[in-house]
Amino acid sequence: MFDIKKNAQTVVLKNAPRVVGFFSVAGPKEARGKLGESFDIVLDDDTMKEKTYEKTETKMLVEAVNGAIEKASLKQEDINLMLAGDLMNQSTSTGFAARELLLPQLGLYDACATMASSLVVGSLILSGGAMSNCVCVTGSHFSSAERLFRFPLELGNQRQKTSQWTVTGAGAVVLEAKKENVKTKGIKISAVTIGKVIDFGIVDPSNMGAAMAPAAVHTFLTHLKNTKTKTEDYSLIVTGDLGLFGKRIFLELIAKEGININTLDNYNDCGAMVYEDSQGTQQGASGAGASAIVLTSHILKKLQEGIYKKVLFMATGALLSTTTSQQGESIPSVCHAVVLERE
Amino acid sequence: MFDIKKNAQTVVLKNAPRVVGFFSVAGPKEARGKLGESFDIVLDDDTMKEKTYEKTETKMLVEAVNGAIEKASLKQEDINLMLAGDLMNQSTSTGFAARELLLPQLGLYDACATMASSLVVGSLILSGGAMSNCVCVTGSHFSSAERLFRFPLELGNQRQKTSQWTVTGAGAVVLEAKKENVKTKGIKISAVTIGKVIDFGIVDPSNMGAAMAPAAVHTFLTHLKNTKTKTEDYSLIVTGDLGLFGKRIFLELIAKEGININTLDNYNDCGAMVYEDSQGTQQGASGAGASAIVLTSHILKKLQEGIYKKVLFMATGALLSTTTSQQGESIPSVCHAVVLERE
Description:
Distance between the termini of chain A: 37 Å
Oligomer: homodimer
Largest sheet of chain A: 12 strands, mixed
Structural class of chain A: alpha/beta
CATH superfamily of the largest domain in chain A: Stage V sporulation protein AD
Number of helices of chain A: 10
CATH architecture of the largest domain in chain A: 3-Layer(aba) Sandwich
Mean pLDDT of chain A: 94
Order of helices and strands of chain A: EEHEHEHEHEHEEEHEHEHEHEHE
């Protein structure tokens, strides 16, 4: 089913860049979830006193970037590059955040895979020595996403069984290039795998888990093959925001490819890690913010504490728009992978 | 007015990557314009027999990528990475093109600056030696853009004096990493300057030239300062798609910064280079396709022929959406610069 062709999708980084700062901003619902204790900032309400949810989203991104820069003991003017993206039309949340931050900025769009794609681009650039650091950021807001992709909240539409709940939150990571002849302890990005866009014909925009799972499987198989690693080499293998249903599909698909489900005690999905079952989010969390807040609260902290040694972080994105869905198109998806290692 | 702070916005590339293939696809109106003779493919009509303009846009991107790969004497499976973006909501044209091309893909969003930003990201990655090649692509379609950003064409709305005409077209460039100990003649990317997001408070989405000109000036001044070059060092300095009105603003703003207008015989704007005055496009061309087709038809050919020696290519992008305009927001803009040199 999955034909892994050549093309150099995986790069093992010669000069692995370091994670020197990370910061998470989360909404009130997210704070009542499984990771509630771990976030750096929790919003009192989901507006941050802004007039529109779009402005709130922008403000979260700014807070996350500034927080990560401060944690890295750097100043705004020290930062060489911001790599940023979000889910809004024309990525306006990050564009407007960049206007405020006044950092050199390159915009990315990989939907909910943007936390991974920004780390991929950042680490590829830094490993080549062209710059000394960058900040990677993404986020999402439940209410701006519902308005844009689904229905006005005021309609009170019923949610479908396969629905996921867009995370209100943002996460930022500061990467620093490896310094020559300096041995530093910490977290490094040792390898990346860039995904191909995969489409298994799912047309239901309320079933993102099913649409994105094949892309996650494709990137996962490619990564294992190219790096000659096995599932047990990782403390944690974590997909982006497949949610509970998508997670099951992922496990079924890899089982068909001969990867035994029993060996995957170390597998989880960011979409399944945010909310409690009692929070009524159907299949769990989604949105660019989902993998961003799980990475910048839970995953990087466990790496820092030495509880995780090596994490395969694979964020997934569905590359649809309301226009393509209305035109009857199926949902192409992508998944990018990053290896985070404690050393 | 323009405070050029430090931050490493400019990178002079140690191992300058080479342009080894480029390809342009243009619509019928563009073919009747100033560069009509130079395009690789001219569409018979603006649909390519597709049912929607969005599908046509996707098809143009696929044609441009395949054309550029063929001109580079490579095959699809040789390509390590596609860097792509477009103007549609959630960048669906490139997402759907990537689905067809099955290349490892990273999505970018820098609006009409995407031709430059894809070359920036590509050359930064290749100069570090992480990969051997990549293809950079962007494009736009007049009718999909009008429907998305302005009014349904069927309404027959009057166009404003400051309007520009979104180019129907796409351009792709294949970059190759410098090979060690191999002296190659050709076109190299020797330096890049990553723009900051600048906003001078323009709120009229029919006046993109005015919104984007300050970002172009900011990047231009930063680039000259950081590279210690002068305007006369370049055979051509070319901005993205400011159009005729924006071009005038650009010249006025740099004059205020002490750069004499008379020295700029070598300055032009992609927005002013596509259509004939008689074609009724008000201030000229715009859209991600504008700088893409001018680069991949006119500019790279003149470099190849040795008529140009060194070109400063600065594509500009307006980071607005219909939502931000309706919410009364002004238009943040960005400009990224790439130095193309014949050697």
